[in-house]
Design goal:
There is one protein chain. This protein is mainly α and 135 residues long. It is 61% helix and 0% strand. It starts with a helix and ends in a 15-residue tail after the last helix.
Length: 135
């Protein structure tokens, strides 16, 4: 029950403050020091026609200027060039990695085969027989 009283009092205080400060025009900050203190702070919002002109300097269907088209083309071209260079660099790094991995695997396989031959060679037959042995 106590929290409802607190809520009711805070809402009442808020309504009272809003009704007292309703006449205020806005919260604009002056940057000039020599302005008269009696002047209004100025308008915060623009007229609708000015805002429309500000936001729509060029309508959606009007053609772009040559400079705008060239600037967009340069941005697209530079982006695609950076992407191409990045992909080429990644491809080169992967190819180098794959080549090193294959080389290491080949060397390990050769070492393993040599160790196997040395361990199981009994000296009775040549190491690399070029002819077929009778069964």
């Amino acid at each position: 029950m106590a929290w409802t009283r607190v809520l009711l009092l805070s809402l009442l205080a808020g309504v009272l403050l809003l009704s007292l400060f309703r006449e205020t025009q806005g919260a604009a900050v002056r940057d000039d020091k020599d302005a008269k203190p009696n002047e209004s702070p100025g308008r915060v919002f623009m007229e609708a026609s000015d805002a429309s002109h500000f936001l729509k300097r060029r309508s959606r269907r009007s053609p772009k200027s040559y400079a705008e088209m060239m600037a967009e083309y340069r941005v697209i071209r530079d982006t695609s060039e950076r992407r191409r260079e990045s992909q080429e660099e990644q491809r080169t790094e992967f190819e180098n990695y794959a080549e090193e991995d294959r080389t290491e695997q080949r060397e390990r396989t050769q070492e393993t085969n040599e160790q196997y031959r040395e361990y199981y060679y009994d000296g009775m037959y040549p190491r690399y027989p070029h002819h077929r042995h009778p069964n």
